[in-house]
Design a protein that fits this description.
Blueprint lengths: L12 E6 L4 H8 L12 H19 L2 E4 H11 L1 H14 L1 E4 L2 H11 L5 H10 L1 E7 L6 E7 L13 E3 L4 E3 L10 H11 L6 E2 L10 E3 L3 E6 L5 H10 L5 E6 L21 E5 L2 E4 L1 H4 L3 E7 L5 E8 H8 L3 E4 L2 H5 L6 E4 L2 E5 L1 H18 L1 H21 L7 H5 L3 E5 L16 E5 L1
Parallel strand pairs: 1-2, 3-4, 7-8, 10-11, 13-16, 18-19
Antiparallel strand pairs: 1-20, 4-5, 6-7, 9-10, 11-14, 12-13, 14-15, 17-18
Amino acid sequence: MGKASVQAEWQPLKRVVVRRPGMEAFFGLLEPFSSLYERVFSLEKARREHDQLVETLRRGFGVHVQYLDEIILEAAGRDPEVYHELVDRTLATMQFAGAGARRARKEFAQNLQFLDREQLVQVLALAPMISFVKKKGARSILPFTTLRVPLTNLFFMRDQQAVTDRGIVLARLAKPQRRRETEITSFAWRALGEPPILQIKRGTFEGGDFLPAGDFALLGTGDRSSPAAIQEILSAGVGFVEVGVVHQPRHPLLDAPDPMVNMHLDTYMNFAGERVAVGYPDMLRVARVDVYRRTEGGRYRLVRKTRLLRYLEVDHRFQVVPITTLEQLCYATNFLTVRNRRILVPDVARNAEKVLANLRRAAEANPARYHRLYLRASVDFGELRSTGAFFPHKPLAREVGIEATQVPLANLTGAFGGAHCLTCVLERS
């Protein structure tokens, strides 16, 4: 295996890291809103969808797919230092409170050597605390287990880091529910022998806001990625000749902002191949771009400002395949490019009914905010269904040579993400 590095989204995919949704997702589904999920979904079906995505990558395209947990567990099995660090992290994460807490913690430390390594990783993801309430009688102790913000989004492996032309840039996630995720992924990268080249210290940054495109790259800034973090990346995390910093646009059909609708750059645009992009034109037209060029001294200097659609079509001669409002909401751009003009894309048509039903409920609860968006999506649904032109089945997509393999992700997209979000691409050739 080579060094973790990505120069362009359309380079042949070689190495990917994923995480199958675990027990933490079960607890997330008990309260989807605070878990940052779009809607409730079947965990069993979501796991089957994840398995099918992995199988398609492995058997269909020969991609080397690794599981996050296995990276840690295999390293802990062969390297005593990694194992001891895993034990120490588990001991620091597990908490006890109430009568008998000191005894329980001492016994837990002694018993760690007998636990399966899988159990240790599960403790890191769930962050349990056991509180004891003592009653009358021998061993009449009631243990109440509380999970201290389990990492319900850990299976979205795109966001904890960005893999640039220089290596792994460790993110600093914006939402407190997700902040601990990088503690686990950074541990895994070091165990894999791929320590991050940069760890974001100022502001916040998430990997869904990074799209490399050969001689340039895009970095999104907005609700999830802050200007301070972007400047930190420009100073030490990338080496592209040019970087376009894209300011998150407000959805044109929302009077009040809802950043979840386009939380990351990859939720409204993506690169399907060399000089080929797919995007939602209503956002691309208004999204502001600050263009930075790399100087001979290695620093980036702001050289001009423009809009994203013009930047792609005029400055870099990309053909942009447009998608509708409904398709954008159905994660049409959250595809994974496996090689030039060959993509793995969520089944947008299958997602549409669930997304539309969820949007209808939002419009009924808050018509002033979501009614216009719901009306436009409803019209799109009728037109797309009658013509059979849900992405990727569009004439222009065929004309520019996009070949697509659709993967069923109707449940996993309920957590606000598609094939792109679910995969951490470590290496392209």
